[in-house]
């Protein structure tokens, strides 16, 4: 069993000052509302309902923490290794200005200030990568130049041709070369379960597993 299958929900918070102690490395998942963040976490951990996947964009307005841990073979006690952190979806046009502002403060504040942040998994729709809110997260990460990123080009099954998939990934890789952060790029599909092992290998490298 991989470490990701040990994931359990621990806490949700709508405020930065209510987050758990920054005691172990944290890998955050960021993306536009309905880009597939929750599905990516569920697929990674092989737990279909671990992260709430709403069909209504903009519904999730909390930072959610999922603990990864090893278990003592004798006592069965859990020993935390890391957190997967599900950040609120952003960029949904039908939300109010106040809600969009609070999301910006919450997500931006977490990325800028959270000392335990190891890296960010940025999920983008393969049909619409680099929307303004995606660029906003990438720009915020410039303030954390040692933090890593992996860009998941999600829903690649929605791209109709091989040439279209090739062109999209080439454009994304070219954009990644302009970033100050270490960035890796890959296709991903929660529906077809493609790219899951590649993502696990990347995160293993981040965590030194």
From TrEMBL:
<keyword id="KW-0460">Magnesium</keyword>
<dbReference type="GO" id="GO:0005829">
    <property type="term" value="C:cytosol"/>
</dbReference>
<dbReference type="Pfam" id="PF01926">
    <property type="entry name" value="MMR_HSR1"/>
</dbReference>
<dbReference type="InterPro" id="IPR030393">
    <property type="entry name" value="G_ENGB_dom"/>
</dbReference>
<dbReference type="GO" id="GO:0000917">
    <property type="term" value="P:division septum assembly"/>
</dbReference>
<protein>
    <recommendedName>
        <fullName>Probable GTP-binding protein EngB</fullName>
    </recommendedName>
</protein>
<comment type="function">
    <text>Necessary for normal cell division and for the maintenance of normal septation.</text>
</comment>
<comment type="similarity">
    <text>Belongs to the TRAFAC class TrmE-Era-EngA-EngB-Septin-like GTPase superfamily. EngB GTPase family.</text>
</comment>
<keyword id="KW-0131">Cell cycle</keyword>
<dbReference type="InterPro" id="IPR027417">
    <property type="entry name" value="P-loop_NTPase"/>
</dbReference>
<keyword id="KW-0342">GTP-binding</keyword>
<dbReference type="GO" id="GO:0046872">
    <property type="term" value="F:metal ion binding"/>
</dbReference>
<dbReference type="InterPro" id="IPR006073">
    <property type="entry name" value="GTP-bd"/>
</dbReference>
<dbReference type="InterPro" id="IPR019987">
    <property type="entry name" value="GTP-bd_ribosome_bio_YsxC"/>
</dbReference>
<keyword id="KW-0132">Cell division</keyword>
<feature type="domain" description="EngB-type G">
    <location>
        <begin position="23"/>
        <end position="209"/>
    </location>
</feature>
<keyword id="KW-0547">Nucleotide-binding</keyword>
<keyword id="KW-0717">Septation</keyword>
<keyword id="KW-0479">Metal-binding</keyword>
<dbReference type="GO" id="GO:0005525">
    <property type="term" value="F:GTP binding"/>
</dbReference>
């Amino acid at each position: 069993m991989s470490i990701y299958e040990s994931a359990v929900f621990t806490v949700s918070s709508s405020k930065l000052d209510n987050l758990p102690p920054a005691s172990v490395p944290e890998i955050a998942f960021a993306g536009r509302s309905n880009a597939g963040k929750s599905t990516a976490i569920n697929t990674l951990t092989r737990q279909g309902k671990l992260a709430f996947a709403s069909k209504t964009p903009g519904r999730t307005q909390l930072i959610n923490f999922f603990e990864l841990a090893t278990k003592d073979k004798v006592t069965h006690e859990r020993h935390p290794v890391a957190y997967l952190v599900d950040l609120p979806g952003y960029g949904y046009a039908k939300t109010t200005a106040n809600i969009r502002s609070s999301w910006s403060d919450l997500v931006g504040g977490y990325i800028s200030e959270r000392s335990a942040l190891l890296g960010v998994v940025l999920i983008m729709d393969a049909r619409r990568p680099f929307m303004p809110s995606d660029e906003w997260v990438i720009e915020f990460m410039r303030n954390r130049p040692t933090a890593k990123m992996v860009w998941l080009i999600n829903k690649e099954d929605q791209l109709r041709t091989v040439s279209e998939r090739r062109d999209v990934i080439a454009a994304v890789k070219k954009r990644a070369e302009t970033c100050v952060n270490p960035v890796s790029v890959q296709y991903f599909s929660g529906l077809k379960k493609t790219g899951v092992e590649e993502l696990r290998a990347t995160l293993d490298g981040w965590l030194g597993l």
